Amino acid sequence: MQQPTQLRTGVVAAALELFARQGFEATSVEQIAKAAGVSRSTFFRQFGGKEDVVFIDHEALIEELRAFLDEPHDDPWSAVCEASERVFSHFARDPELARRRYEIVRQVPVLRDREIVTVFRYERLFDEYLRGALPGLAPIDAVGFSALVTAVHNHVLRQLLRGARVPVSTLRTALDDVLRRYGVLPDGADAAPDDLVVAVFPRSMPAAEISRRMQAQLS
């Protein structure tokens, strides 16, 4: 018996093939179910409609990231970057399927609109997490960092979707630059227990992050 994840993957692959061959609007739920070898009722238990087939991975990823960010993290800024890398790694595991989905979305206005909403949901998730993890963080810093991480992720992912071979290290390097621009790139050296700490912070570092680092050093 197929596992739920395998079943969803099979339905998605069948749907994208039909969308590419005969168009999104001309493809019915019945045709998708038949091509995937599932019943119409099974389709509706797994998906709400044709649009949901295209975006089902994002729904699962957002819930996965929400659970990940609910875990304790020493560095909230790096946690957001790691969440972004998790999304990229998911699509990089099957780039051909991701590229087929990308081509369909580009061609269908209603899917492009939903993609914009989906991107905003990632950005809002990161924004809300940072505000909760860093009390006192200025809203402009939370939303600005979240928007930049999301934009950089999408820029690198788009290269993959257009056919380039892009390892996750490319995204990681780009996100390190985001951390550097905000003055929150983690230091590589570990401090000794008896070290005297002289704190020097970049002007661009948010005040809430300065406070968090000072408290971490003094505790």
* Content-based structural category: mainly alpha
Helix content: over 70%
Q: What is the arithmetic mean of pLDDT?
A: 89
| Portion in beta strands | under 5%
Could you describe the largest sheet, including whether it forms a barrel? none
**DSSP strand count:** 0
Query: What would CATH call the class of the largest domain?
Result: Mainly Alpha
Tally of individual helices: 10
Question: What's the CATH architecture name of the largest domain?
Answer: Orthogonal Bundle
Element pattern in H and E: HHHHHHHHHH
Characterise this structure.
By secondary structure, the protein is mainly α. It has 2 domains: 1-48, Arc Repressor Mutant, subunit A; 54-187 and 194-218, Tetracycline Repressor, domain 2 (Orthogonal Bundle), CATH 1.10.357. Helices cover 73% and strands 0% of the residues. It has 10 helices and no strands. α1 packs across α2 (29-36) and α1 (4-22) packs across α6.
Quickly describe the structure.
The chain is an all-alpha fold. About 2% of the residues have low confidence.
